[in-house]
Automatic annotation (TrEMBL):
Native organism: Beauveria brongniartii RCEF 3172
Pfam families (alphabetical): p450
GO molecular function: heme binding; iron ion binding; monooxygenase activity; oxidoreductase activity, acting on paired donors, with incorporation or reduction of molecular oxygen
Protein name per UniProt: Benzoate 4-monooxygenase cytochrome P450
Superkingdom, natural source: Eukaryota
InterPro entries: Cyt_P450, Cyt_P450_sf
């Protein structure tokens, strides 16, 4: 599973992307800031999303409401 998730950075030590660690660090910072400044809620919690697997896993209809958190 880990190899399929990280295909954007290639697999194995010989062909691994040199910027992989920096890119992952930047993504962690972006998501931390998003969750710190915004609140995410499902629009329809009874029907969160539809998933389909036919060799590739696909998700659709994930409707999320995003609101800015108040300054505390």
């Amino acid at each position: 599973m880990a190899q399929t998730v990280m295909m954007a950075f290639a697999a194995g030590s010989q062909w691994e992307c040199l910027g992989k660690n920096i890119a992952q660090l930047e993504l962690n910072l972006v998501f931390a800031e998003l969750f710190r400044h915004f609140e995410f809620t499902l629009v329809d919690p009874a029907n969160p999303w539809k998933s389909f697997n036919a060799g590739m896993f696909s998700q659709s209809n994930l409707n999320i409401a995003v609101t800015r958190r108040s300054a505390a």
